[in-house]
Amino acid sequence: MILYEYPFNERIRTYLRLEHLFARLGELAARSSATDHHYAITTIFEVMEVAGRAELKTDVLKDLEKQKHLLNSYRGNPAISEAALDQVIGQLDARFAALNELHGKTGLPLTEIEWLMGVRSRASIPGGTCEFDLPAYHAWQHFDADRRRADLHGWMASLLPLAEATDILLKLVRDAGSPQKVMGSGGHFQQSLPQGRSFQLLRLRIDPQLGLIPEISANRLMVSVRFVRFTEAQRLQSVSEDAQFELTYCA
Questions:
Q1: What is the CATH code of the structural domain delimited by 177-250?
Q2: Of 146, 122, 148, which Cα lies nearest the Cα of 135?
Q3: Over the stretch 3-21, which tens digit does the pLDDT of each residue have?
Q4: Which of 65, 95, 190, 248 is a plausible cystine mate for 179, CB 3.0–4.6 Å?
C-alpha cells in the first residue's frame, strides 16, 4: 500500500516537511560517498530554511505541552495503561527539555562555521559548488568517509532536538486516527467533515497495483480526492473508474 498524507493546517505542513528532510538526511549521512555527503549538507541547509521561522520553536514547545496536558487528562481511565501513559509523558518532557535548551534558531551553531556557510550561499546556484569556487569544500569532500561522516553527525546534533520533537508530535497525531475503507466512484471521492470537530492530518492508503494517484484537497468542511494516472506519454490523466482505498482522519 502507498501512503499519502495531507495536512489540514500550516503547522502540520511544516512538521511533515521537516520529517521528510530529517529522514533523507539520516539516510544520506549514513552512506560513504562524497556525493551522498554533499546532498546531506544541502539537506541540512533545507532544514535550516524550513526551521528558520522565529516562532517555530515556540509552536513546537506549545504543542508538546498541549499533548502532555491531553494525556494527563486520561489518568484514572481504566482503559488506559498508567505505565504506558507515564512513558509517553516522560518522552514529551525529555523532548521539551532538549528543545528548550537550544538558544536561537535551529542550526544556529552552524552559522559560525564560515566555510560551511560559504557552501550554503552557493548551493542554490547551478554548479555553484565546483572546486574553483569552493576549494575548501572540495578538500573536505576528499577527506576519509569516516571523517566526513563524523562532521555530518556533529552538525546534525544541533538539529536533533527539533527532529525528535516533531517526530513524537506527528506520531501522536497519527495514532489519534482510525482507518476506514471507502470507495471513490468514477475517479472521485468527496466527503463532508463533521461539524464541531477539528482534524490535523488526513492519511490515504491505496493499492499501488491500481496505478492511481490521489490528488487531495481538504479544508475544515470538506475533503475531495480526484484520481489520476500516468499515461504512456508520461502525462497525468483523469480516470473514471471506481477505486477502493483506506482513509484516516487524525484529530
A1: 2.60.440.10
A2: 122
A3: 999 999 999 999 999 999 9
A4: 248
